[in-house]
Design goal:
By secondary structure, the protein is an all-beta fold. The chain is built from one helix and 33 strands.
Length: about 300
Amino acid sequence: IYTPPDIRIATKVVASNGTGDYTTIQAAINALPSAGGVVHIKNGTYIITAIITIPSNVSIIGNGINTIIKMSNNIAYAFSNATRTGSGNTNIMIENLMIDGNQSNMVSGGNGIDMAHVDNAQIVGCKIYDCYGNGIVFDTNSKNIFISNNYVYLNRLDGMNISPPNTIISNNVVRGNSRYGIYVAIDSVVVSNNVVYENKQHGIYLDGCDYICVISNVVKDNSYGNVGTYCGIFLGNSTDYSTINGNICCDTQGTHTQKYGIYEGVGDYNLFFDNVFYTNVTGDIRVEFYIDGATT
């Protein structure tokens, strides 16, 4: 995984009040040398009307919740990589900022971060909420992605929609998204130590992917508002050779909604152990297995 330089040696500084090198993020990115660099975004609210595009070897680093990127004008995404086809981009980082999706004023588009054809990218310490689309999206042509310590919540679709192999999703809070909390549709992904709760459909959905490790997550109170319909962790469409270990899958609400803690719809050779369950609506775990050709 690419490790960017420290913000103390930022190549360009963005400040909405004019105390930096630039007042807009894209202008600062465009002014970087061809080898890349670091853009430090100081405190302020930055209303964007066009996608911020990031080339290779560039890190975008804010000041936490005091750096607010607010979407407008029905733009497709807040941040994307500059080259979304072919060999794409490498070594991109977005860290320590907030994306306000401004959902009530959007009628289309609206993913917070959407990357395609990226190798080595990190999304770390960001708060991404209220997007008209998904919070974080990476396509199948990307690889080697690290998503950690983010708070992704109240987005209209998925909190995270992840399709690149060799992805690590760890130590995030994913809450209250209107579809899935974390959706994975590719092989070789680790989902660990996340808190995934109050999403309206499945908390973690593994969709036809193999060699997934789902480890030590708290997955609770999902199917929020849809009593007994969706599950905490759902394995569908022939998810095989995966390990589901050490998760807490429960429902703590006054009116329970999460159908099963873990549900294996279609899958083979999956390993389930040391998971903890309580007060799910229909049952704790449903696993499909075969005896003499019959499904049980």
